[in-house]
Amino acid sequence: MGYSLGVDLGTTFVAAAVAYPTRVETFTLGDRTVVTPTVVYLREDGVIVTSEAASRRSVSNPDRVGREFKRRIGDPTPVMLGGTPHAVTDLLAAVLRDVLTRVTQTEGQQPERVVLTHPANWGPFRRGLFEQVPTSVGLDDALMTTEPEAAAAHYAATRDLEEDEIVAVYDLGGGTFDATVLRKRADGVEILGNPEGIERLGGVDFDEAILSFVNYTSGGALTELDMRDPQTVTALARLRQDCVLAKEALSIDDETILPLFLPGQHVNVPITRADFEGMVRAPIESTIQALSRTLRSAGVAPEDLSAVLLVGGSSRIPLVAEMVSAALGRPIMVDTHPKYAVALGAATLARVAARAPWPAAIPGLGQVTGPVPNGHSPRNGRGRSAAPVPAVKPPAPAPTPPRVESPPPESQRTEPPAPPFPPAARPPMPPPTSAPPASVQTPPATSVPTTPSRTTAAAPEPAMASAPARPAAYQLPDVRPPSSAPTQPPSGGLSRRTVAIVVAAVIVLGLALAGLALGWFGTSEPANSAASGPARPVVRKVSVPVPSLGSAIPVGATPGFAAVSPNGRQLYIANRGAKVVTVVDTSVNQVTATISVDAGPPQFLTFAPDGKRVYVSIFNPERTLAAIGVLDTTSNNVVATIPVRTRPFVAAVTKDGRYLYVPNHDSGTISVIDTGSLAVIREIKVAANPHWISFSNDGTRAYTANHESNLISVLDVATDAVIAQVPVGISPHALAVNPQRPLLANVNYDGGSVSFIDTNTNKVTATVPVGKNPQQISWAPDGRYAYVACVGDGTVSVISADDARVTATIPTGRSPTSVAVLPDGGTAYVTNLDGGTLTVLNVGG
User: 485 pairs with which residues across the strands?
Assistant: First the structure.
């Protein structure tokens, strides 16, 4: 009798299930349990042992053991076992090979079809690596599906799931969390919205929380251990296993005792369920936030769900069901054995696949990928063909870490484990979008960027039209300090120069102290010096594919455009109909000033590079007024008004701050203003109706979006000549230069799309459909995601720079018109023109 096989290669456990023609049941992989740990051990002879055999050896030789390595798939850094590097895919292949061997020996024959599962939020890069795993063990026709789809298939097979019924899958496993919304269709299940995941959150993190609790309760006994002592290493490995048992016990009992056996010390540490719930409540709350973001991206309200399926071993924690039920108010469905639900569903889908002719669609396999017999390529439920699986060489020990040719997106990068924490502190598993407290200065990340830099200077192109050369005085000055070697004092004492410097410093310090004592120096700052003051130490956050919504900020009527000061401390908003500019302190998200613009309605804002000025585009609906206001950020007063030809849209300042380029919408010209004399010194003719202008990162090119011409004009800044014109979509309205890549993004207002342009070739490389009437676009500082304000449908679209796809659609307030992102990449602000508010987006983690 033939059978099919489903395998769930989890972060901490492996589960398998077999499907016969009339039934589906779990397959016992462990010696005493159905599942087996995802653990590998490198023997002295180079053989890799897996599962329980590896786990038993972990206590005596922990340096030869590998755990939780699935988290690191896509990380080019190999896993070190006994000093030898191993690729993650090779270790997963070893685990899968042992599963297949055990199942085949028990059943007496190979399975007709095998389905493997993976997280729903994995991108093409990680899925491609994962597809190498079955190929490397000779399983060339294995199929892939997502874990939530497999869980939904098991749910549908055991209960009546009607067509168009919607369920949410909450998958909290040993190492990761995934949230997905699914709709039942006649031919299977359909993923709605964007699956959300938290890479490093699961049962192993809860184990670490218990370990930290033990350390705190014992007065820091673990911190003081000498890890050079083999007995200490063995004792700590045993303690980690006891933490796992304690966690599992607290899902059943209200209290447990954890024995602490250390060299020269034996203590019993009592842990109550309340203690444990205090440790994990915050990370569970972050999973619910992720699930809520998934529901919003799918456009599904909680009341639209028929149920929330809890799968994954860690979902058995009673607090999970309590918090999910309280947050969503929907029925919670927990399988009898949530660890096996994904494997059972994969086996169910494998049985269906074994009966289906190729290349026919397979009901229930909405995300099937992988090679199939006779060269056919299955297509998933959204019509994308599966990528071919590259050939994999047999694993061999490598003297150097393996090189990965295509680094993963940063959203799929693994993060270092969080440090231990006392029970009174916040648990070390914050939501991925949370920002560090303002008082904490986190050092900049030192990991190698996962997206290769492609920022190269564009080659000079022949000018399309002659233009007067810019005066030589315009050339950027060389501000680099002269290189000089430090003077070396003679041996045996300080040089005269050094002594003089020290004496001068003492005198200056004394004068300064005297001045403070006598009141020579003022102690108060100008009203808004923060806008032009020094920047905070920027710890750039990694942008996330699905931002979360923060609280709305009331900022007065008709907020149409927002600009962030260069130091990130202030946000200036142009309130059009109210004829004011509103200032928001970004540290507290509160309005701190309201500035009248007597000349007329402020439409757009542009900061000078030093933050001392904001240039305000002013025009009225009647088109009788066209000017640039100069707002001094120290006094928060408009100090000058410069007439321009016609309605000025979004301007840009040259990198040296000396010239302001202003697009005049109705006259097809760019006014160039000298920021020293505040006078228009020339005009540049471009295609009809320029809306927007931006400079390249090196300042040598300028780009204008020409609304009526469906063109992007490219200007040589040295000559002000138009050197190229790039056809784009209908009504190009706004554009933004990627800060990290040679990539320009443009929104097409009436086309409902975004054009990606390669600035090296001036060619459109992708056109991305977004929401209705996209009006403005901004990049995250790390260049990974763009944010598009779609005024027509009240949403912000998030687009990945890696694959030019929309990763999230976030509902905001009424008529979103602009998105401003802080320099650290943690927060974005959306102006809601008709709502009188700013929507706060948590865009970086």
Answer: none
